[in-house]
Amino acid sequence: MGCCNRRCGLIAGAAFGAAVAILGGILIPLGNSVIEGTVEKEAVIEPGTTAYENWVSAGAVVYRQFWLFDVKNPLEVLQHGSKPVVIEKGPYTYKTRYLPKENITSNPNFTVSFLLPAGAIFEPSMSVGPEEDEVTSLNLAVAGAYSLVPKVLHIVLDRLIKTTNSSLFQRRTVKDILWGYTDPILKGTVGVFSPYNGTYDGYYNIHTGKDDISKVGLIDRWQGERSVPFWNDTYCNMINGTDASSFQPFVDKKKPLYFFASDICRSVSASYEASLDLKGIEVYRYGLLPSTLASPVVNPDNHCFCKNRLVTKNCTVAGVLDTGSCRDGAPVYISLPHFLHGSPSLREDVLGLSPSGEHHSTYLDVEPTTGFTLRFAKRLQVNMMYGPSKIIKVLKNVKDYTIFPIVWLNETAAVDDATADMFKDKLIYPITLLEIIQLTLMVAGASIFLLCLIVYCLQRTQNGRHRGKLV
Q1: Which of 419, 414, 428 is CA-nearest to residue 281?
Q2: Own/partner pairs for 52-59, CB < 8 Å, 24+ apart?
Q3: Which of 19, 179, 313, 324 has a 20 to 30 A CA-CA distance from 2?
Q4: Which pLDDT value is given to residue 53?
Q5: Which stretches of the chain drop beneath a pLDDT of 50?
Q6: What pLDDT score does 5 carry?
Q7: What is the pLDDT, as a whole number, of residue 309?
């Protein structure tokens, strides 16, 4: 009777262990379903969700750092056609994106419209000096007029340059170069980012994800259009992806992330590079591929971004994007800082540059479950072009077309400690706890099952031997 009870107990224990292990297995799809449902609900851009609260106003402080290029040999360039030698000066840091979105309007097709206001507040404690520091830089008006004014009128431009005592280079304050000054040639305000304060980016029209979470954050229209008009090509004019602040939940690192960057007037993609820890949260690091600004010779998809075949040596120069078509024709070229991934000729024409992948690349750190960007660094360089002229005196000794770096910027932000803790409390810890419970149930159940099964088998073997001895 006792043996029977022990066998029955072991069988019951094995059955119990199997049931516990199965329960742990069942909790995996059930728990995942609960997590997916919660994440998808909170990722929708509508009042009351976590995504909406962070979307209306940036939770993290966004800073924009500027390094300006100071020309050390302006007279040698003018008098002897020497190559300019530059040294970067910075950072000069500004707090940006501190203003919440405006004119937020919900639309019946599950989209929401808004304007993104621009503002910049100088942060002296994070800068190498005051905004009044002076830098010798390219004369924006001279370089701009050189390209915009027809050659038949260059004689008039030369007279304007002479009568206003202007030259190819000028010494201006950091504040003037960045945000604007009254130029004697153009009789108007000129600045790399002028106008800025009090202006807006948009209108944007984006999908809320209410009807389809895979579309959350995708840009439906920018400035009322589903494509941009700058590149005279259907492919290059496409507006793809989000604004890079977030992506659809449950990010697949095997697939690139697409986003539209209004400051370069085009869409780009970023690819997975590594998994990192950000304040206890796993994030996927995405970076721009070198092929993003490659020449059409290397990346044929970029053929429509080549606008000036003369300056780009028949579209063989890599690393610069001619944005003149979206900046009223101004000869503005965008690149990565210090011409990172650019053709060697760019750094041979302007001496003193030293590109670094660590300091000059653009990246996004995306939390894979929610698709929220928790840290980013957008690094761009603004360049202008000037070239030789037989008429304009200050350009007579210039030997070739030069893409000259004026300033590079690092716009960066990272989730703060309070937001990171909230993120972990609401998402990371519950998911981790659920995984621990699932694993514990499966391991404990399997262990009980195996233990009971082993003991049961041993007991049967022992009983069989005992009977053999009796016979």
Answers
A1: 428
A2: 54/372, 55/101, 55/245, 55/246, 56/100, 56/101, 56/104, 57/99, 57/100, 57/101, 58/97, 58/98, 58/245, 58/413, 59/415, 59/416, 59/419
A3: 19
A4: 81
A5: 1, 20, 24, 30, 470-471
A6: 60
A7: 86
CB contact set of 283 (below 8 Å; sequence gap of 6+): 275, 276, 277, 365, 366, 367, 368, 374, 375
The reported pTM is 0.86
Max Cα distance, the chain (Å): 127
Identify the burial level of 29 via C-beta atoms within 10 angstroms of its C-beta, where 0-12 means exposed, 13-18 middle and 19 or more buried: exposed
What are the structural domain ranges in the chain?
A: 61-98+120-197+227-415
Measured CA distances, 253 to 125, 274, 286, 367, 426 (Å): 38, 9, 9, 11, 23
